[in-house]
Specification:
13 helices, mainly alpha, 229 residues
Amino acid sequence: MNIESSLFYGTALTLVSYWIGVEIYKRTKLTLLHPVFTAVVLIVAFLYFTGIPVSVYTEANLFIVYLLTPATICLAIPIYKQFDLLRKHKWLITFSIMMGVFSSLMVVGGLALLFRFEPQILKSVISKSITTGVAIGLTEEIGGYTSITTMAVIMTGIFGAMIAAHIFRIFKIDEPIAKGLAMGVSAHAIGTTKALEMGKIEGAMSSVAMVIAAVMTVAFVPLLLRLLL
């Protein structure tokens, strides 16, 4: 398979799988059938039954991987549109995000101690709640496995997007700012896409939370690893 056909195959498989996921989600409205989750299942099934190695698919999908960073940057648009609201509640927002990041790291750290994770496994999953591009870069710096990080980040985002509406309903959380911050801190980019479906304020708050949470996680992780390892 030459490079041109390889890139076409990887991009086409990803886009078609996601399109199918979106169409299924539109028709069923079931949160358990989130488009990203459906796309992952379809791609895994396709690779399994065709016998195509994951490494080949990964290489063939580089074009979309390169778009992760500009796609994340585009989330600045809803932030800009809600800038006045952000400025009005800046301290509350900052404190909430900090507590969310701290809670996430403490949970991972606690599980690592409870189940006696190997150091490389801990380093691979500790950044599960931040966006993929930043998480992979952090894992490379601290010596973890980027493949495990990618899986952890994607599954965290999908799970967060799936259960968010149910959690908000159970605990009667109606405040748009609270919803958005929760989605961004706990479910990063995938959660932010779900937050944008909920409303403009939720989307903007989730975008802010995702960005600030990534920065805070990068700053706090080395300190936490020194305590745990």
